[in-house]
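subagent[fold] <- orchestrator: predict structure for attached chain, return tokens only, no commentary.
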Amino acid sequence: MRESTNPSAIYSKKEIIAAFIRLMQDYPFSEITVKQIALEAKIERKTFYNNFTSKDDVLDSIINSAIYDYVQALTKASDGPLTVIFEFCDKNRELLALLHKDNLLYLLLLKLNKVIPELNESLDLSENPFCTLIGELEPDYLIAFNIGAIWNVIFKWVDRGMKDSPEHIKETLEEYLKRI
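subagent[fold] -> orchestrator:
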């Protein structure tokens, strides 16, 4: 995605993203074209390419935005990471369902595997929500373990149609963790 502070470009990006999401509701990701996105957004293809390089770039932008919101919430959380994770999932049900429909949920996992270790290194220890869990232990493996475990639970929740409440899943996991 090309960054711009131009109000027209910001508006175009929002329209492109909204059009892309509408198209993802009706078509498989593999069948969506830049031409369709431009038509749905009521913009010229040139405007699309002034903002994004491809439909993959649009999807990456959507995921980046969601992950950015997630990371911001994590760094400000007082309730702990599980609460933030399930609030994120509840807030992003539509995105999770769309990614699941096209077998693209793994893109979230890939992004988290990159972003969370970077966050861990950049945060002051007093602001790090994982500090109490990791302590003096080797962080790389523990971060990967935690991301993989929780996101597999999230993937299972999405796969089951997101019927259980995020609070119920959180309580189940917390009860399980008490037992180990």
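orchestrator: received. Logging for downstream: The mean pLDDT is 86. Residues 55-76 form the longest helix (22 residues).
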